[in-house]
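Minimal example, chain plus heme C.
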Amino acid sequence: MRRRTALVAFIMLMLATAVALPHSGATGVVKQRMDMMEAIAGRMKAVAAMIRGKRPFDANDASAAAEAIAGHTRKLPQMFPEGSVGGSSEASAHIWVNWEQFVKLSRRMQMKALSLAETAAATADGEDLRPQFRELGQTCIACHEEFRENR
Ligand code: HEC
């Protein structure tokens, strides 16, 4: 029980550090994808609050949040046109060296978000979302570890 709580907390901590980084001056597609990632993180936080009982569980809200994440993710690869690095972007140039892997991680994220949405729509208990939430969070972490530079 404690361990499962720790995992959700850990994922949220990763996300909190992510948004704490400054990215003033970003423009164009870099700004758009930063905004998209932040919107995704906001939805993750809303779902996490329900899982952790900090907010009453609402199946509609939780599944809508997960579906919104999947919707954003559909557009994720196209927000990384080749060579769009520099400025305040934390994107690694490695993305375009290993593009297949980048796209694969986006697809996996989309799939996990959809399965989170399904689970959310079919339960009355936020606890039931833990496994899918964790799997979704692991795709964020996997991609950030490989393709995002923390400056
Ligand atoms: C397929 C790869 C990939 C996946 C999956 C992914 N991200 Fe990202 N994320 C990135 C990259 C690359 C950046 C850096 C973009 C830049 O700075 O140009 C980033 C940046 C971010 C940022 C910082 C945005 C900013 O304002 O600078 C947040 C927050 C974030 N991601 C949240 C998430 C969350 C939450 C998930 C999972 C639900 C997720 N990401 C999944 C690749 C990914």
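The CA atoms of residues 23 and 88 lie 5 Å apart. The pocket of heme C is lined by residues 15, 18-19, 21, 23, 30, 33-34, 37-38, 40-41, 44, 69, 76, 89-91, 102, 105-106, 109, 136, 139-140, 143-144, 147-148 (CB under 6 Å).
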